[in-house]
Amino acid sequence: MNALIVASSRPISSELSLAAKRAGADNIALAFDSTAAKRAVSDRAFDLIIIYGESFPGKSSELARVFAARGEGGVILIESAQFGEDIAGRLEEEGIILLHKPVSRVTLFQAIKMVCASNNRIARLVKEKQDLLKKLDDLRLVTRAKLILIQNMGFTEEQAHRYIEKRAMDLRRTRAEVAMDILKTYEV
Questions:
Q1: Which of 102, 108, 50 is CA-nearest to residue 80?
Q2: What confidence tens digit (pLDDT) does each residue in 31-46 have?
C-alpha cells in the first residue's frame, strides 16, 4: 500500500509513518508542506493519505478535500476537537475520516485498516463495473450482428442468435468475436 504522510513536524511524521507501516503500508512518502503534498499526489497515486491538521491551520480540511476529490485512496485528517459537527459531517460526506486529537495508536490503526478495507471494496466494484461494461459492449456487438444477419440473410432473430452461438462453439471463439467477423463482412 502506498501512503502519504502530510505533517510539518518530523517527529509527528515519523510517528504517523510507523502507524501506517504497522497497518500494512510498505511505500511511505512524507510531505512537510501542502505544496510538497500536492506535488507528490500529482506524481503518483496513494492508497492512503494522512494529514496532520495542526501543521496547516485553516487549510487542512481544504487540503483533505482536494485529495479526496481525486478518488484514488482514503484520506484521514487528524484535527483538534474544535471542528464542529457540521464540518465533520461535510468531510464525512466527501469520504474523509476525521480523527480528533489526541489520537491513540489503536484508533489510528483502526482508521487506517478501515481505509484499506474501503479501498479493497472500491477496487472490487471498479473491476465488476469494467466486467459489466465489457459484457454490455459484447451484447451490443452480438445484437448488431444479429440485425445484419436478419437484414442480409433473411434470418429470424432466433435463427441469427443460433447461428452466432453455433459458429462461436464451432470455432471455439466468443460470441463477440464471431459478431465482429459478421460486422466486418457486411458493414462497409
A1: 102
A2: 998 888 889 988 888 9
